[in-house]
Amino acid sequence: MMYIIFRCDCGRALYSREGAKTRKCVCGRTVNVKDRRIFGRADSFEEASELVRKLQEEKYGSCHFTNPIK
What we know:
alpha+beta
């Protein structure tokens, strides 16, 4: 099964199974997958989620959590 990586109008990177018509973003929009620019393809959902993570880091920077209590 192949997965495709694309962006929502809000800028968030998403992935979906190839052949899916729509995908719901966390911003609330329903995205028509067919009309999106494809940023990448992956063979597994683990690989797809890693590609999405990299795209998000490129746009928004690293999201490392820190422990405020020392």
